[in-house]
Specification:
Protein name (chains A, B): MarR family transcriptional regulator
CATH class of the largest domain in chain A: Mainly Alpha
Main location (chains A, B): cytoplasm
Helix content of chain A: 55-70%
Number of strands of chain A: 3
Strand order of the largest sheet of chain A: 1-3-2
Number of helices of chain A: 7
CATH architecture of the largest domain in chain A: Orthogonal Bundle
Order of helices and strands of chain A: HHEHHEEHHH
Keywords (chains A, B): Cytoplasm, DNA-binding, Transcription, Transcription regulation
Largest interface: A-B, 69 and 69 residues
Structural class of chain A: mainly alpha
Subcellular location (chains A, B): Cytoplasm
Number of domains of chain A: 2
CATH superfamily of the largest domain in chain A: Winged helix-like DNA-binding domain superfamily/Winged helix DNA-binding domain
GO molecular function, one term (chains A, B): DNA-binding transcription factor activity
Distance between the termini of chain A: 27 Å
CATH topology of the largest domain in chain A: Arc Repressor Mutant, subunit A
Oligomer: homodimer
Strand content of chain A: 5-15%
Chain lengths: 162, 162
DNA sequence: TCAATTAATATTGTGCACAATATAACGGTG
DNA sequence: CACCGTTATATTGTGCACAATATTAATTGA
C-alpha cells in the first residue's frame, strides 16, 4: 500500500480523511453546542471574542471592539460568511455590531453581557469532547501541530505558481 | 503551553485546526477541479464511482450500479446532500440515475462514458496538489493515518452515552 | 476640490451539510 | 388481500462557505 500521490482511491486521499474527520468532529460538537444555542462556526466566533476580552482585561472601558475583518483573518472566513452569521448572533443578543465613529466603513463587534456570560457555560466543552474520545492527549496535540503546520504551509505557498 | 483540554483559546483547539486545514486544502483543490467542472464533493463522488468501476472491471455488463445509500455510507453523506449533488452531475451527463427494476425504492448511479473518461484527466490531480506542498510524503501518510484513526474512533463511540 | 483609487462591509447566487419530515416501495403477518 | 413496520430516496428549511459584485467611506492626487 505505497502512496505515490497518484492514487485516485478514496481511502488513499488525505483530503478525504480531513474532510470526513472534520465533519465527524463537528457532528460530535453539535449536540453540546446546541445546549448553548450555538452552531459550530458561531462557537468559533465566540471563542475569538472571549479570547479578545481576556486580552483586553487590563482596559476598563474596552472602547475598541473587534473588526469583522480581524475576525475574518483569524477564522479564515470572508464577509459573505461572517456578516449573516454575526447578524444572527446579534439577534440573539450575544454581541453587538456597531459602525466605528472614527471610520464609518468599519463594523466593530463586541460581546454583550449575555455573550460574555456564555463563556462560563462553554468552559467545559473541550474537556467533555476529549473525554468521550479514547485517544492519548499527546497524540491529539501532535495531530493539532501537524494540521497547523499544514495550514501554515498551504497559506504561505499561496496562489498561482506551482 | 500545556493543553489540558480545558482551554478556550482558538489556537489550542484541534477542532479549529481541522476546520481551517480542511478548508485550506479544499481551496487548494478548487482551481484544479474547476478545470474538470467539478466541485470538491462532486470530485469525491466521482472518486467512488471510478473506484467502483475498477473493482467491477471483470464484469462486462456491469448491471449493478452504485446505490445512493452506498455512496452515502462511503462518503458519510446523507440524501439531503447527495440527491441534489447527483442530479447536478446527471444534468452534466457525468452519470445516470435510474430506479432499480428489482427494487423500485433504489436509485442506481452509473458513470456515463463522459464521466468515466474524466478519470484520465483527474489522474494527475493528487500529484499536482502534493507537488506544490513542501512536506515529506511520509508525514502526509502519517497525518492521514491519524485522521483515519480519529474518524474510526469517533464513529465507533457513536451516539448518546458518554 | 473633485475624480480616481483603495478599503471595509454587504449582497446575491450557487452548492454543500444536515435535521426533520414526506413519499413510496418492499416484506412479512393475519 | 389489507395492515404494518422498515427501507430508500426525496423534499424542505436553516446555516454555512465562497465567488462575484455592489455599496459606502476613506484616501490620494492632479
Amino acid at each position: 500500500m505505497v502512496d505515490n500521490g497518484d492514487s485516485l482511491s478514496l481511502d488513499d486521499q488525505i483530503c478525504f480523511a480531513l474532510y470526513a474527520a472534520n465533519r465527524a468532529v463537528t457532528a460530535r460538537y453539535r449536540p453540546i453546542l446546541e445546549e448553548l444555542g450555538l452552531t459550530y462556526p458561531q462557537y468559533l466566533v465566540m471563542l475569538v471574542l472571549w479570547q479578545e476580552q481576556c486580552d483586553n482585561a487590563a482596559d476598563i472601558s474596552n472602547p475598541e471592539g473587534l473588526r469583522i475583518s480581524d475576525l475574518g483573518r483569524r477564522l479564515r472566513l470572508d464577509t459573505g460568511t461572517l456578516t449573516p452569521l454575526l447578524k444572527r448572533l446579534a439577534e440573539r443578543e450575544m454581541l453587538t455590531r456597531e459602525r466605528s465613529s472614527r471610520d464609518e466603513r468599519v463594523v466593530e463587534v463586541r460581546l454583550t453581557k449575555k455573550g460574555a456570560a456564555l463563556r462560563a457555560r462553554a468552559q467545559g466543552i473541550p474537556g467533555r469532547l476529549l473525554c468521550g474520545l479514547d485517544v492519548q492527549p499527546e497524540r491529539l496535540i501532535a495531530l493539532r501541530t501537524e494540521l497547523q503546520d499544514m495550514l501554515r504551509i498551504l497559506e504561505e505557498t499561496g496562489g498561482s505558481s506551482g
